[in-house]
Amino acid sequence: MYWDLFKVFFRIGAFTIGGGLAMLPLIEADVVNRKKWITKEDFTDLLAATQTLPGVIAINIAVGVGYRLKGLKGALTAVAGAVIAPFFAILALALFFKSFRDNPVVERIFLGMRPVVVALIAVPVITTMRAIGLTVVTGFIAASSAMLIWLFGVSPVWVILAAGLGGYLWYRFDKYRNRRKGL
Amino acid sequence: MIYLQLFLTFLKIGLFCFGGGYAMLSLIQDEVVGHHGWLTMQEFSDIVAISQMTPGPIAINTATYVGYTSSGGNILGSVMATLALIIPSVVLMILVSRFIIKYRENQTVQGIFRAIRPVVVGLIASAVLVMATPENFVDFRSYLLFSLAFLAAYFYKVHPILLMFLGGVAGFLMY
What we know:
The structure holds two protein chains of two kinds. Chain A has a domain at 2-110. Chain A has eight helices and no strands. By secondary structure, chain A is mainly α. By secondary structure, chain B is mostly helical. Chain B contains eight helices and no strands. The N and C termini of chain B lie far apart (47 Å). Chain B has two domains: 2-96, no CATH class; 133-175. At the A-B interface, helix 1, helix 2, helix 3, helix 4 and helix 6 of A face helix 1, helix 2, helix 3, helix 4 and helix 5 of B.
């Protein structure tokens, strides 16, 4: 199991170009769809948590998944797996960086890869929305938070905290209303 | 004591960078270029370019690279910087995971997450919007690749790594 966890996150670390949320589709494909270690719903909650916390998103997800499965040792295993490939890749690059970057073949390959990376991040927008259930309310929350972050540069931290507070008040209000109805 | 400095600086970056990825860049630049002068602005831009092309998150790539160059080409510098960056993630995520696992069935927590889940969709969507730049979409071929990759991933669940590999091959052949 530890070896499996290490392998999965090693692959994720090794094949994520661009970092950050670009790792998301890879992690979901392996952890939710292929290995079925956690459900799509749990994965979404985990994402919310990782976005609220500081730090590297991919590492946060590795810790979250590893911990959920195997506790502290699982978390450390997943992190080690995720970090090793990028670490050595950059170290190798630091040695002959200039020649790599100016290589026209490398540039052509990356011209083809970049739009694919963006497409891979676009897919979970739709699959996650469908998993949550698209209603007027959820659609509005999703669209307005995307706009706040993209257009107005609001930090995701504030958006998530505001939503959490909103959810809490909404829950209290529902409870209050139901109690009154009960009387 | 360059190693201690590296460690403390990247610990700080790991602790105060919210939002990840591109959101982290300004803080990293402020520390590494502005405050410590470990990299020139030009070198920093190069690092951002490299992390677009190499595996791994931008912040990890920067930490590893800066650790190496600023310590005069010593791997120990890379190790210190990278470790320091990861430590806050590990500690905080474990605390939060504990909390989530313990209180998952709690009604109030459920209510809070009901509102947060759609926000996560918005966050991912904003990442797509932020990445839809002229550097990533140079001409109609980029849009073609984007559309094909999207359809293949959405309808046929083709594995992302295979798609990126195919994208690389297509880029090599087309440009």
